[in-house]
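Exercise: predict the structure of this protein bound to nicotinamide-adenine-dinucleotide.
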Amino acid sequence: MADRILITGAAGFLGSHLCERFIREGYHVIAMDNLITGDIRNIEHLMKLENFEFYHHDVSKFVHVPGELKYILHFASPASPIDYLKIPIQTLKVSSLGTHHLLGLARAKKARILVASTSEVYGDPLVHPQNEEYYGNVNSVGPRGVYDEAKRFQEALTMAYHTFHGLETRIVRIFNTYGPRMRLNDGRVLPAFIGQALRGEDLTVFGDGSQTRSFCYVDDLVEGIYRLLLSDCSDPVNIGNPDEITIMDFAKEIMALTGTKQKIIHKPLPQDDPKTRQPDISKAKKLLGWEPKVNRKDGIRITYEYFLSLSKEDLYKNEHKNFEAYIRK
Ligand SMILES: NC(=O)c1ccc[n+]([C@@H]2O[C@H](COP(=O)([O-])OP(=O)(O)OC[C@H]3O[C@@H](n4cnc5c(N)ncnc54)[C@H](O)[C@@H]3O)[C@@H](O)[C@H]2O)c1
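Solution:
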């Protein structure tokens, strides 16, 4: 019998890639998602497999899974600013109540659990690059607080279960990741620029574009998560690509790649937008023997080809279809 792993947020960008990876590794994957920001098409190709099953479920409600579980990966959560500004309460609930339910399930099943945290726990950082010892600079009542504080609470709760119940836990702090299956309309900078280029619109840079980000290709991230899960490290570990770039230079790279003749326009910086973002990955290198392998040029080309393959409807869609139904609940 194959070992069984539960992956929450499985129909999302990262969750769908994790499902594929664990299937390739010979696991029986139980995928769970309420589809609030995800898309069932991301995992449709796995549905016919014997070692894959899908539960349509909101993990902010009690989670029941029959049978044994060896591992749980908790990746359910809105992840882009546009999403969590539109559904702030659901965002707070999934990383607090949802995490509580999954930690309880892990305890009942004697499973090891890995939770998806984020570089946003560092807020608008005063330390650069960000290492795991930095406590962060977060505005708890600002618009991004619903995401950042929920993830900080998630880390605290996970560590408490480790300390008080002896649960085997892992915490990954993910820095900006990109790749196929990101949503073109989710407001993250890479799909936003590519979407604008493909629609023949000007590229919008917030502020003067001197703010920096560091982009990690999804396959590198998945490899880091896989190694962290199998490691014995219960402290948080940064996984990301330290190759830092200003948003202005990034916009120019996308213009060169897509060949768009549009121009760059500027809009005011959103409140609490981090000015810098670069992971210090010394810990991951030392403990996991991990570092990213895919350079930005190659990764972006693969991602661009994915976006080119989407329908016109996807290209022009600006609302996520599932929000309305969930907001009324
Ligand atoms: N992509 C990144 O760059 C990045 C960076 C830092 C952290 N993360 C974390 O990784 C995880 C996945 O992010 P993503 O980029 O794949 O986002 P995504 O929006 O594509 O995927 C999240 C998935 O979680 C599901 N979900 C949300 N709330 C749920 C709930 N209550 N019950 C069940 N399912 C629910 C959504 O429907 C979606 O399929 C998130 O926890 C996010 O905070 C991602």
